[in-house]
Specification:
Elements: H1 3-39, H2 49-61, E1 64-65, E2 68-69, E3 74-81, E4 84-93, E5 96-99, E6 104-106, E7 121-125, H3 133-137, H4 142-148, E8 154-160, E9 166-171, H5 179-220, H6 228-244, H7 249-258, H8 271-274, H9 282-299, H10 306-314, H11 335-350, H12 361-370, H13 377-380, H14 383-403
Antiparallel strand pairs: 1-2, 3-4, 3-9, 4-5, 4-6, 7-8, 8-9
Helix pairs in contact: 1-5, 2-5, 6-7, 6-11, 6-14, 7-10, 9-10, 10-11, 11-12, 11-14, 12-14
């Protein structure tokens, strides 16, 4: 094979392999999304296990007998493995159960001090034991006794199985603990074990999903001069700005990892256009602008990628309607896309390119908030997003300094 032909063959072969890898990553992302949807059809996020525990405990507290609550005053949830155990103590108050004190940690050899009993279910009352109330206290871990701060008169315990095995111990029922309370606690233990396992498995799959989002984003930048550091910085900036404009923590996190896919459509943009040092011709500009619609097409309609799709399709729209691909204006532009537009411009200004130098943080802040001869903030940006950026710009400086251009 002639030398020039070999070069063309290897270049084409490398491009083919890159696109195959890109498609494989995209398919893995879709499979992971389907797995998450199948595991939890109703929820768009990994369950908050602490919130689930409190909800379950408070449902238990509603149970009454002859008008009086039969809920224990304290509940202790312990989990761990061979290396050690951690317990959270809850106290019942007028408004339900609340966490009492800091988490309590045990060495593995102290596990016998959780429950003062053997077997799956133990029901014990001090008045039924052949010991004094003072001696009865020594059956329990000293940190538990100290945190409760009052004598323990009875307890019920049941083991918790699943991904985080441990025990559920309830202290100080009204009057005395009975087998009835034991059955309720056993049911609660089984429920929490199942929920714990589900939350753990979903968290593992969610972690894989987010990793694949990043992998797909990095693969899409193969033709561009930007780096993996740019993708990560945009993600961190977007999450920071989302919090600043009022998104809840979980939604801000979704916006952060979804922002990595803002330019995923550039996989179909010719490299010579992406890296051209001078102005683009009208035909080249038309090709470049197609990456927003290409990004939407690549991301598809998976529910868990809906935010990423809106960002990819909308982050080049302008506040005054002069942007692309749909010339949307103002509130017509998805809010997530308005956020990512600002952070993308900030990082572009801070980055060196063949056709420009890297601006300092102060210069980028001045351009984005006040403009220059090429950029008019009033035309491009949502004023509310600019206000939030102005309030958090110091965090942008910190993120850029921490991540730099290492990738």
């Amino acid at each position: 094979m002639p030398h020039r032909a070999r070069i063309r063959y290897h270049a084409r072969r490398g491009g083919d392999l890159c696109h195959v890898s890109f498609r494989q990553t995209l398919e893995l992302l879709r499979v992971t999304d389907e797995a998450l949807e199948a595991m939890c059809q109703e929820c768009g996020q990994v369950p908050d296990f602490d919130a689930l525990v409190l909800r379950a405990l408070n449902e238990m507290a509603k149970s009454t007998l002859a008008g009086a609550s039969r809920a224990p005053r304290y509940v202790f949830l312990v989990h761990g493995r061979e290396r050690g155990f951690t317990g959270t103590l809850y106290r019942l108050g007028p408004d339900g159960y609340r966490v009492l004190g800091e988490p309590i940690r045990f060495a593995a050899q102290e596990s016998h001090a959780f429950s003062a009993g053997a077997g799956d279910l133990v029901v014990s009352n001090a008045q039924d034991e052949n010991v004094s109330l003072e001696a009865y206290q020594h059956r329990f871990h000293p940190t538990v006794r100290r945190t409760i701060g009052e004598p323990i008169r009875n307890f019920v315990t049941y083991r918790v199985t699943g991904d985080r095995p441990g025990a559920l111990i309830a202290f100080n029922y009204p009057d005395r603990a009975t087998r009835y309370e034991g059955q309720v606690l056993a049911a609660l233990s089984v429920t929490l074990g199942a929920l714990w396992t589900l939350a753990s498995r979903m968290a593992q799959v969610e972690e894989g999903f987010i990793y694949l989002v990043g992998a797909l984003a990095r693969a899409s930048e193969v033709n561009d001069e930007v780096t993996g550091a740019h993708i990560l910085r945009v993600s961190r900036y977007a999450e920071t700005l989302a919090r600043a404009v009022g998104y809840p923590e979980n939604e801000a996190r979704v916006i952060g990892y979804s922002a990595q896919l803002h330019d995923v459509g550039k996989i179909h943009t010719p490299r010579q256009i992406l890296t051209k040092p001078g102005p683009l011709t009208p035909d080249e500009e038309t090709l470049m602008r197609q990456h927003a619609l290409q990004g939407e097409k690549i991301i598809g309609t998976a529910p868990r990628l809906a935010v990423a799709r809106r960002i990819a399709g909308g982050h080049h729209e302008n506040w005054d309607g002069s942007g692309y691909p749909r010339a949307l204006a103002g509130e017509e532009i998805p809010r997530e896309a308005r956020l990512v537009k600002v952070v993308d411009v900030y990082d572009a200004l801070r980055s060196e390119r063949p056709y420009k130098r890297a601006y300092t943080h102060e210069e980028a802040l001045e351009i984005i908030t006040r403009g220059d001869d090429r950029l008019d903030p009033a035309r491009l940006f949502d004023p509310a997003v600019i206000a939030a950026f102005t309030d958090t710009h110091a965090e942008f400086r910190r993120i850029h300094a921490a991540i730099g251009e290492w990738a």
